[in-house]
Write a structure and sequence with these properties.
The protein has 388 residues and is α/β, with parallel strands linked by helices. Helices cover 48% and strands 8% of the residues. It folds into 2 domains: 144 residues, no CATH class; 171 residues, no CATH class. The chain contains 15 helices and 8 strands. A hairpin with an 8-residue loop joins strand 4 and strand 5. Helix 12 crosses helix 15. The longest helix has 21 residues. The radius of gyration is 25 Å and the shape is elongated. The two termini are 14 Å apart. The N terminus is likely disordered.
């Protein structure tokens, strides 16, 4: 068996991953205007998604006008919004490292279903008490929503419109970041998903110098991932098909640092810098390396490389449901079930039945894995003649 190893410095496919990971390289706040935030998010989308946004936005604008015939200007809208402290819209910036990535589809949904009484004042603080300038630490999507209403529906100048804000005196960014995570886990708001929470933890350590153990651990995981030319993302951003993309956060969040290091090395060996990591691949290989940790196995690069060679040769490192891996594993399962159990077999394309087959296959070809237990909650144990 032979395989071509990927040279980090020569892989053009790593450019996108490096670009995505660069957002975590800042050690201070990155301030954006509302329009800059919209433009950078919109311009980063593929052309087909930009066309979808254009259509969705136009539909939302039409629906806004249909549902709110009496709101014909920002002056009339202001009378319907909460009576809070009002500041000019242009005096509010967005701290790029204090907010999740802008979700344009969610903004279009808010616009499409707009109700003035649901608009919550923007949560802001003053970085300089002597200047009438504020940074939003929560409410980014509401802020962009109001900006769209002002500019796209009424055609007015944002400089002339004051919007409601809640001004907080605290400058403790780690504290505000914690509040942001907590506040966006309540009903009625766009919930933070696991990706959003992990992103905030990474920023919290790198920008705020936060020392929460969980946040530091997540930041260490990000370091491991970016050092291997991979990057974390979510399907909602439309780049989960890019080279190096990892879009399943559950395994990343649960894994300890050592098995994550093993996983990333394996992914590099099987070419994941030049393609996205498939979901079943993340599930199976994360489970495998976690089992290695529980068995106190200290894997070498040579062993991980050998695993990658085995995976590529026998099932092209493909764990998708129709792959050779599951075909061979299911055959082994049905033969085992017929010989030892009887009754109705129910094969699962999950670690329950996939791990015993994967572990025994690796143990067959990779030296030094004898202490790894292949057992799961199933009693399935493939016969050696049914392995690859």
């Amino acid at each position: 068996m032979s395989m071509q190893f990927i040279n980090h410095s020569q892989s053009a496919a790593m450019n996108y991953a490096a670009q995505k990971n660069a957002r975590f390289s800042f050690s201070a706040s990155q301030i954006k205007t509302i329009q800059e935030r919209w433009n950078e998010t919109y311009n980063s989308l593929p052309k087909f998604q930009q066309r979808a946004v254009d259509a969705s936005l136009q539909g939302a604008i039409n629906e806004f006008r249909r549902r709110n015939p009496n709101i014909t200007s920002t002056k009339k809208l202001k009378k319907l919004l909460a009576k809070s402290y009002y500041v000019p819209m242009v005096n509010i910036g967005i701290d790029d490292t204090m907010q999740r990535q802008l979700n344009i589809a969610w903004v279009c949904t808010l616009l499409h279903e707009f109700v003035a009484t649901k608009v919550i004042p923007i949560q802001v603080y003053q970085p300089d008490p002597d200047k009438e300038f504020y940074l939003a630490w929560d409410g980014q999507h509401t802020l962009v929503l109001l900006w769209l209403i002002c500019t796209q529906i009424f055609g007015e100048n944002p400089q002339d419109w004051e919007i409601p804000v809640n001004v907080y005196s605290s400058h403790q960014k780690a504290e505000m970041r914690t509040s942001f995570i907590d506040l966006n886990s309540e009903a009625g708001k766009k919930m933070l998903d696991l990706f959003d929470k992990m992103e905030q933890m990474i920023y919290g350590v790198r920008v705020d110098k936060a020392t929460f153990p969980l946040w530091q651990k997540v930041e260490q995981k990000q370091t491991i991932i970016e050092n291997h030319g991979l990057f974390l993302t979510s399907k909602k951003f439309g780049d989960d098909d890019q080279p190096g993309a990892i879009s399943r956060m559950q395994e990343i969040y649960k894994l300890e640092l050592e098995p994550l290091e093993y996983l990333c090395k394996y992914l590099v060996y099987v070419g994941a810098q030049n393609r996205p990591t498939e979901e079943k691949e993340m599930v199976m290989m994360s489970y495998f390396f976690e089992k290695c940790r529980l068995a106190s196995l200290k894997l070498t690069d040579s062993q991980i490389s050998k695993m990658a060679q085995v995976a590529i040769q026998f099932w092209r490192a493909d764990f998708s449901p129709g792959s050779n891996f599951w075909g061979k594993a299911s055959t082994a399962y049905y033969r085992w079930h017929q010989n030892y159990i009887g009754g109705l077999p129910r094969f699962s394309k999950e670690p329950l039945h996939g791990f015993p087959f994967l572990a025994e296959t690796f143990k067959k070809y990779v030296p030094g894995l004898s202490q790894l237990s292949s057992h799961t909650n199933s009693n399935f144990m493939p016969d050696k003649k049914d392995l690859f």
